[in-house]
Each structure stands twice: as structure tokens, then as C-alpha cells.
Queue: 3 jobs
Job 1
Amino acid sequence: MSSAPAASATAGADYRPPVALRALGAVSTLFGVIAALMILASVLITCHMIFVRGVLGQSTIWQTEAVIYLMIGATLLGLPYVQKLRGHVGVDLLPHMLPSSLRRPLAALVMVATILMVAAMVWYGWEMFHQAWRRGWKSESVWAFPLWITYLSVPLGFGLYLLQLLADLWLAVFGPDTTLPEPHPERSPD
Amino acid sequence: MDPLTLGLLVALATVIVLFSGVSVAVGLLIVATLFLWIFDGSRSLEALPELFYAELNSFALLSIPMFIIMGAAIASTRAGPDLYEALERWLTKVPGGLVVSNLGACALFAAMSGSSPATCAAIGKMGIPEMRRRGYPAEVASGSIAAGGTLGILIPPSVTMIVYGIATETSIGRLFLAGVIPGILLTLLFIAWAIFDTWRCGAASAALVSARYTWRQRFEILPRVLPFLAIIAGVLYALYGGVATPSETAAVGALLCIVAAVLIYRMYSRRDLWIVLRDSTRESVMILFIIGAAGVFSFMLSSLFVTQSVAQWIAALEVNRWVLMAVINVFLLVAGFFLPPVAVILMSAPILLPIITAAGFDPYWFAVIVTINMEIGLITPPVGLNLYVINGIAPDISLRQVLVGSMPFVGCMILAIILMCLFPGLATWLPDAVMGAAL
């Protein structure tokens, strides 16, 4: 812990990350809002589907598929925003038990490993999207939805997640101590 | 390499990676990727995003965000405190009435929200200060809420049960039913302990003031509480009446709960609605990310033949099935100490289920056993989520006091597991009676 808590607290409050980082944060939030709206849309579409099938007695064509694509999209596009809110749960027991001299190197190692993993998902996810795009793959249903649209959420979601992780890494290395990730999201007011 | 040795290596690597502090989802992806890369070659990595995508490509999964929205909408209103107050007004004559109404409110709120931390927060915000004001010790006040909150993942609808259903390809409707009687049993055990504890305090209970309410006061609170209970009853009815699938009923339930929150609790402001949506998005994304990653993880396990050989190895040991069950319980309990329920279930279900069914155990009964184990993990250190929630809403009660208060309830849960083993019908009777015998 810092020897001058008051000073570091004010430094944290006054600290403004560089413009690029704030812009990235805003992009993550924007996609968080989009993800939330996609989940809301899937609630409404599912209710619509039940109405059409149950009350009007007609068969439904696109709803089930659309709702699944929306949910997948919301999950992937929501990744950067949840990262920003520190909402991805992990076991932070060992880091807490380590002396602070070892805690930073471990945190750095974990971040780098996370970044490499997410980068691999972006790389292979792009291949998956690109193939569906080039070959014009469509879903095997009456609706025949172009699959590149939903596949795009994989490289896009992981790509934005990667950017948010890089921003966090920058903050962890160059930012003041107080901007370090708070490990217990359930305690934060967010 | 021998698949069993490989399995041991995977287990070791998973423990090390997850304990490093990496997020659970990314940790699972890292372990899966490393093993696929080393033992299956780099070409297998091309399939990573497809495996992840394929795991999420399921209509059944939709019930997770839907039930989470339902819970978040209810949790954002004053429904929790109202429910608590309603029970308090109706249960004044019962010894230890206040603790009893707290636990009852927890059980009912658990049925509405399906989430343990939400239950803890909603009932505890009002219940803990009220109990302390009336002279209950801090340990009893905080412990009963921490324990009562864990009912959220056992009493239907429960997100934990949905995840189990998806991981094991069992019927979610049947799983929900399997949780009903054990949920009530556990609530009664909690209540029995609370009454006994209050009675044991004896002399001190002179300080426990019990309030008096008129019949008018008792009835006037009902209109604010009953609509939500009606929605839950409706959702469960639709589920078992065969009207709709869990995802569909959950979507209707989510919409109705939002509408009820707006109409009854006048939650008009865009900000309030956004908070409901934001919290549900955060939790859904977190869980669905773990589910996608666990899909990749279990693909790795089965493509390296770990799943199959562990099951064969255990079958070849020919140990007594109850010894096996005891060992599995210890494993689940320890895993639950460190990991969130969803992660434990997703990682262990593919390996445990074949073992369980081969030993002649019912998968629905086992779901209840798993869930009670996970409940214990929620109120035990080092990562008992409910302990931190209580710590957040009542910061003046030390974590140690909360822990001392919740320990007797851990005893109740272990007792419930033993009762479930002695009388498996507690879990299997209701699903069989409502939906017919399992295939």
C-alpha cells in the first residue's frame, strides 16, 4: 500500500488518462450499450414469437435464429464493457497472499497471457468470418441468414476486448496506483 | 501420453492458471489452447473460435440472460424490503419471528430472482439493520441473511440449475422441479436452527422486541408483493404446462417483471431502467463468456480422451458408490470454496456425469447435491460471494462475525446433503409426479 494514502488518492481522483485511452473507454461503453440493447431486443423478439405462434397460430420463421444471433452478439460485443467494469470473475486469492513486490510481476504476467489468448481468438476469429464472407455461407434454415454477420461478432468482440485490455495494461504500467483494477466488482458501486 | 496422466496434467495446469488471478473464462481458454496446441498440433487452434461460437449457438442458453433480467428487475425495486415487511407483519407470533421472516423472505425472493447475491442484498439491506435494532446479535443477523441468500441458486428458477442442465443435456424444467422440495427442506432447517438459536439465547431474548401489527397493516402491504409472486407462479406454470420452453417463459417473465417494476414501483426513469439492463448485461456476458470458454475446455478434454479414460478408470476401481459420492462431494465442496458455481459445474459436469450415471445415481438428484455444495461455497472463505455482499451492505459487522453467524447454517446444508442421500426421493419424487418418470 502507498505510504501517503491521501496524496495518492487525490492523484487518482485528478488523474486523467490520455485521450486515446478515454476514447477507448467510450468505445467499450458504447458497445456495452449496444450489447444491452441486443439483449433487450431478444426479450421482445421472443415475446413476439410466442404471440405469433401461440395467439395468431402462425409458424415462426426467423425469430428463434435471430434471438440466438443477438445473444451471441451481445456476449461478444459486451466483453470490452464488462472488462471495463471489472465484471469478469477470477480467483484473486494467490495475488492477495503474495508480497507486493511479487504481485505486480504476476499481474503483468496474467495480463500479457490474457492479451495473447484474446489476440489468438481475434486472429482465428477473423479467419472464420472471412471464410463465411468470401464463400457467402448462409444458415441452413428457411431464413438463410448470411452467417458472416453473426461470425463478425467473434473478431469484432474479441478485438475490442483486446483494445480494452491493452488500455488496462497501459494504465497498470504508467498510471498511478489508484487506477489499478479493483478485484472485487461486487463491492464497487457500479 | 497416457490419457489419465494427461488428465492429471490438465487438472494441475487448470488449478495453477486459475489461481494466478486470471479471469475464469480466459483461464479456461488458455489451458484448453495450450493442451490442444501441444498434443494436437497448431492446426487444431483454427477451430478455437468455431468451438466457442458453437457452444453459445443454443436457444436453451437464452434462458440465462432472460432469468437474469427478471431477477435484476425485481432486485432493483423495493420488492425485497416489501416482501420482508409483509412476512414480518404476518409472522409476529412465531418465536424468533424476525429471523424466521427474514429467512422466509430470502426463500421467496430467491424464487423470484434466482440469484444468491441479489437475494442477500435485497433482503439484507432492510433485514440486518432491523434485526440489530431489535436486539439480535450481529452474528445471527448477518449469518441468517448470508445463508438465506444461498437459497437463490437452489429454489427455481435458478441460473445455476440452467447451467447444469446445459452442461449435462438434462431437462431444465425437471431440474427446477427437483430443487423445489430440497429448497423448502433447507429453508425449514434454517428456520429450525434460527428458532432454536433464539430460544437458546433465552434470557437475552427479553431484549428481542417484537412489534405489533393490525390486520389492516397486514393486508395493505399485500398488493405490492403479490404481483411478482403471481408472475413467478405463472412462469413456472407455463413451464410445466408444456406451454413454452424455459427460454420462452423466461423472456415473458422478464418482460412482465420490467412492466410490473414500472407500474407498481413507478420505475419510470431511464436511469433506473438502464441500471437493470446494465447489471443484467454484465452478469449475462460474464456467465456466457465462461460457458463459451468451458465449451472449448470440454472439447479439449474429450478430444484428448481425458473424459472417457477418467470415467473408465473410476469404473474399474469398483469402489462403493457411496464412497464415490462422498469423494465427489469433497471435490465439489473444495472447488466451490474457490470458484463461482457456474465455473465449477461447467468444468466438472462433463467428467462427473458419466461417472455418476454409471454408478447408478440420478442426474437430477445429483444436480441438487451439486447445488447445495455450491451454496456452501457461497458463504465460506476465501471467495464466498455472499460474505462480501453482506460486508458491503453492513460494513460495521466484521467478516469474522458474518462467518461465525453463517457456520451453523453450513451445518444445516451438510445435514440436507445427508438427508438427500438417505432419501433421494426428496429430489426425484416431484419431477416424476409432475412430468412422469425420467427416460
Job 2
Amino acid sequence: MKIVVCIKQVPDTKGGVKFNPDGTLDRAAMLSIMNPDDKAGLEAALRLKEQYGAEVTVITMGLPKADEVLREALAMGADHGILVTDRVLGGADTWATSTTVAGAIRNLEYDLIITGRQAIDGDTAQVGPQIAEHLGLPVISYAQDIKIEGDSVIVQRQYEDRYHELKAKMPCLITALSELNTPRYMTPGGIFDAYDAEVTVWGRADLKDVDDSDLGLKGSPTKIAKASDKVRKGAGEKVVLDTEEAVAYLMGKFKEKHII
Amino acid sequence: MALEEYKGVFVFAQQVDNVLDGVAFELLGKGKDLAAVLNTEVTAVLAGSDVKGLADKLAEYGADRVIVVDDPELKEYRTEPYAHALASVIDEFKPEIMLVGATAIGRDLGPTVSARVKTGLTADCTVLEIGDFPLNPVAGEEQLHNQLLMTRPAFGGNTIATIACPYNRPQMATVRPGVMQKIDPIAGAKANVVEFNPGFTPNDRYVEILNVVKAVKNTANIMDAKILVSGGRGVGSQENFRLLDDLAEVLGGTVSCSRAVVENGWQPVDLQVGQTGKTVRPQIYFAIGISGAIQHVAGMEESDLIVAINKDEDAPIFDVADYGLVGDLNKIVPALTAALKAAQNE
């Protein structure tokens, strides 16, 4: 079985968020990490590899620096790493990103593609299903459990109040939730080997069946009109009241805010 | 793509088990505002099996027209038949705006459909307005009017971006549930129903549903909860979490907790908020008996509204709370639960 895992290098927004004195985001001070949902997707692939035997290829699109997350993936146990990087791919929205990644995956053999549900920088959850659409594959989003049965996958697909147990014929694409598992650590030997490993680097010319007009900033249907760092809110109101007054105060606020 | 051919504001009226989701009404409310500015109509797209009976309810909440795609293949949500339904409606009826709820269904359906009809999609919007793109005139660039401007948080809520989709139609957005206001229902409104069936031919992309398992209370995902009632060391004991359970129940919320509570064995780790737990962004976060260590705050500070109850006036949780009550949680929490219950019964 051949599994392709799509991963992304992201700034660590969970816990490690740093701010400038004016309340804006201090991006330079933030660490780059492998996106957590993607890491869960990689872990799921590695477990399928252990259980059923599989060749795991990780692919990322990004700046040359994104090589770091590929090596981390190799150190965890992935077999091959592919970095898709090119100036003309910069500024891509989810449409252009998914078009690019699909163009790269068309060069590969695969039974299963696993992506994270969403990246913690954009939080869109769009790229996985859009890759599936470009490749004409069945997609199962929000996977909380993955099993293989013959030429099919059996997946628990999470919703707000239930899950569906779904069966899809491979090849197909699954988007993984970080709750799926607890990713393993890199092994010391793995780290050592990963830094010597060969990572394949692809550019625009290596993308298959993709038009220039669908790539990068120009190929992105969505355009940013305005972006700003959110200035963090300070403390609100603090009151010291007896119980009855405290409850009345809060009920008044809830009414004001149309909560009740 | 001749952009001017695309007219009208469409909303996807999500239903599960033939019950309309609240977000459908919220989208209709917002859709009505946008349609008024554009001098056009609001259309609800209702897909499912045997769902025609829900059309009038959509009219009551502001739909001028309801397009019903009724087919046995649409009984349970599956990406493919639903994407085919919605993409076919877009191809046939050509809306200029298509809104979908940012639910576990909408966040799968939206991207699939946007890729199929080749248009942009902006995720998890919290503000939608009609305006110009670019916002201000730029020399040498035509400023387009009557564009949908979609505002959304990114970077874990640390940045805010406003997005337009000027050269593709429809302009698509998923919209965060609970943000937009529904209108007061117009009793007796009747829908102008248009039935449309593009034909459904199962193929490998129609996945098979083996089982539908509805969640039991204990598997609540605190990351999806709209209201979290979170307790800390100050709650005092496992038994005393009953006070929080009661408050959560009356609000339709979920109980969560701080790390100290997990370490004391009062609650399972699944419910832990914070740096070593989960990052949550509910509409309301109650921090009850939680001092507010930075590691905890990192996991909840992006909540829309934070209410803190703590007996220690200097607790750091008050620095991030919108409303802070200094006092005894053992008195305030049950009294608040009772007051909310009374308000609901009014």
C-alpha cells in the first residue's frame, strides 16, 4: 500500500503565541512546527504502515525552510519526503494551494492520501477536500479512526453530535483530526538518518496538469482586502457584590448581549 | 464566466434527520440584510430526503424562495451526493453569493463545492458586508462595487482578515454558527418552492455508511462546544462539579476544566483546557474557581465572552474576563442556574 501524507509547517499559535508590547503578534519570536492535525495524519499513516505494511511519502508546499518538517516526518518513520517550492506558488489561497498539491500528487502512485483537517494558521479545513475534488477522489473529512479492509478504508467520521462509520474504496482522501492519536516522538537514530536523507524538491515545472492561471497569488480567487493583528482585549468589568446582586448583574449583561 | 449573470443570495439550509440546523435561520437573517443592499432575493437551498415539508419554516425565517433537492440518496449527509446537489444548483441558478454554515458538514461541503464550481471560499466568517474592492481606490485598478466582503479570524484568532472574491462567482463563505442574527419568524409565511433534481448516479465517490452512532454525553468535544462551564481547583471536589453540570445543562453547554482538576482526578483529561490541554474558542466561557495561570489562559482567551467567578479578587483570570464576579462560587453558581432556569420558563 502506498500512502501520501500532506503536511504543513506553521507558526506555533497554540500556547507559544508571543505578542509585541502594542498587542500585535510577534511572528519572529514564534516557533515553526509541524501542523498538529497533519502530525496526527502522519501518525495514522505510520500506524497503518506497521499494521498492514505501507510506503509513506510526506509532501509539503512552502518556503525552502519547510524542509525541516519533512525531516521531522522522516525521523518519525516516513519513507520519502517531497518539498514543493517555487516563487510562482507564493500567496496562494486554498484553491491555488490545493491545485498545486494535487498537481504534485499526480506524479505519485497512491492508495490513500491523508491530510490534517486544518492548519492552525489559517484554520480553514479547505485544502484537504479541495485536493480530493481536483483528483476526483472520495473524501472523508474529520476522521477519528481509520482501518483498512481489503481495498477499502473504514473510517469514523466525526460530526458535532454523532459519528458515521464510513466505508470508501481506495484510492481516497482522509482528513485527520488531532484527536485521532498521540503522535510518536522522533527516535535519535531516526533524527540522525533524517538529516542525511534525500528530500525531493519540486518546482512549478514538476506539477502535472496544472495551468499557470490557477497558481499562486494570481490564481487565487480570494483576495485579501484588509488584514490586521487583533489587538488583545484587556480586562473587562470586575464587581464585588453579594450573591443576589451578582446574579442580577450577570443576567442583565446576558440580556444586553442577547444571550438570553 | 460572465459575472453579471450571477444574481441573488443563496444559503444552504442544513438539515440533519429532517430537522433544520439553527445556522440555516442565521444565514437567512444575514442573507436578507445582504439581499436588501443588493436589491435582490434570498433563496434557501434545501437538500435531503423527504424534506419538502421544511420549506415553509425557511420562508418564516426570511427565504423568498426555496429550492428543494429531494432524493433518497440524500438521506444522510455524505460529501458526494450533497456536493453534486449544491454544485448543480449553483450551475443551474447562478447565485452571486452562496453562504454555508461552518459546521462539520459545511466545512466539508463548502470546499468540495467551491473546487467543483471553481470559485473562492472564505472559511468561518464572522462578519459579512457589501462594499468595494479594493476598499479604497487604487490608481490603475478598477474599484469594484457591491462585492461581498468576508471577515474572519486567522492565526488562532490572533489576526483578522477581510477577504473578497472579485473575479469569480458565486462569492462563497462558510459562516461561524451562532454569530449571525436570525429574524423573528413571520408566522404563516409560505415558501415559493422550486423543485430541482440533477439526478444521482452512485459511483465510487458515494461512500457507504455502515453505522450512525449518536454521541453519548461523555464524549462531548469541548473544542466544538458553544458554551463551556469550566471549573478549577477552587471548585473543591469532584462532587462539587455537580454545580457546574447543572449550570451547563441549563445553558446547553459543556463542562470543561483546568489542569489542576485533572491532576486531582476530578475530571478526565479530555475536558482539560490550556496549553497542555485543548485550545477552545466558545461563544461563552465560564471560568469558575480558576485562578487563570498563563498556561490556562493561552487555551481560552479567544473565547468570545469570558465570565470569571473567583473568591480571590487578585486572581489573574480577572485580567482576561469580560465580566468578573468576586465571590463564593458555591453561592453564585447555583443562584445563577436558578435565575437562568426562571428566565427560560418566562
Job 3
Amino acid sequence: MTLRKYLVILSVVFFGSVGDAFLARGMKHAGAIDIHHLSRVFSALANPYVILGIFFLLAFMSSYMTALSFADLTYVLPATAISYVVMVLLSIFWLHEHVSPQRWVGVAFIVIGVGVVAGGPSRTEHLAAHVPASALKERV
Amino acid sequence: MRAFYTWLCIFITVCTAAAGDVLVALAMRRIGDLGEIRRRYGFFAIILRVSSSGVLFGGVFFMAIAFFSNLIGLSWADLSVVGPASAALTFVTNALGARFFLHENVDRRRWLATIFVCLGVLLLTWS
């Protein structure tokens, strides 16, 4: 993994978490959508927070596609889960919210999960598909 | 009844998000490393290859369904219910999709990471 690839993973984290925060805030402003009036979901698209959220999620999508072009799906998804930790840190330092011990345990679990997957290779199926078994044994 | 619709929304979100992720991952694997393509052939080669991938558009279609289903779910229930439930379940269904459809080598390390992240997300948001 090069520095550029780590930056791509970080941009997935940044755009995804900020986009989700804008969307959640926008949908709270828009109010509940009735099951018989599902088309009202389109009226929520006029909300400025939802529009901002969609712009951030478009940036998320392009960085996510770039990440998937060089890494496995099962590498990218756990690695970008660090965005949940970013949200907790934002809630502490920006919104001055109280974070319970249960949430700190959750943060610890995510950090361990990200650390476990980040320590391995970003692409695995090429090793299995194109390298002879004898060569694989030599690498190990 | 609202709880039923909320969980129906979560179910639709999880299934369509996993289908979208698997299809987009498949398309990007076929297209190749975007950084490498840009270096060799320029930025417009990326636009051309990405815009001509039918599998990618299929993935984006499923992601769009997941997006709207998630929006509807968020309007019915709290983020603390919809967020962790759909995120944690999507991690597991994605790992299964990657294993069986993309034939990724989901080894013990990656299953362990997926389980840790799932538990972490549940603890973090389901309080």
C-alpha cells in the first residue's frame, strides 16, 4: 500500500461520515414519510442539508470506486469503518456530547477490527488465482 | 406496524446495499487500478472505461435503491436503530457476497475484522 492508496481510504472515511451526518440532519428537518406517500421522499431532496449530503456522498462514491479498483471489498469496508470513530470524536470535541463507557468499548472494537484488516494484504484473490501453489508456499 | 415497516426498510437496505457493493467491486476489478490507468492513458480514459461499464451502473442502481430505502427508514425510526442495524448487517452480507460472488479470499483475519467492526458498530450506536 502506497501513501496515495492510504489517502484514498482516508477520503472514503471523510466524505462518507460527513455526508451521512448531513443526510441524517436533513431527514430530521424533512419529517416522517408516510407509507402511502412514498413519493414525498423526493420532496426531501429540496432540503439544503440533504443536497449537501448528496454532494459529499458523490465524492464518497468516486473515492470508494477508486479504493475498490486496487483493493478487495472485504478490505475496503472494514478499513473505512474508522469513520464511526471519527463521528464519535466529532461528537466529543465539536458537539461536546457525553460518550458512555459502552460507546468507548464500541470504539475499541472498531479500532481493533480496522487494525486487524489493515495489517493484511489489500488484494488477495490475485495471489490465489494467478500464482502457483508452490510459489504461494514459498512466499509464506 | 411502524416497527414492521422499519425492519422491512432495513432488510431492503441491507440486501440492495450488498448487491450494489458487490457489483461495483466487480466492475472496478474488471476496469483495473484507476491510478494506473490515469498514469498510462490519462484522465479521460478513466471516464471512458467507467461510463462504459454496465455492471457498474447495475451496482449504482442497487445503491440508489438502498439510499432511498435508508432515507425512508431514517424518517420512520431513529438513526440509533436504523444506522447500526443496517451497517452491521451490511458488513456481514458484503463479506458473504465477496466470498461467494467475487471469490475473494475471506480468510480468518478478515472474518475477525468484520465481526469486531460489527460488534463495535452495535455497541457504539445501539445505546
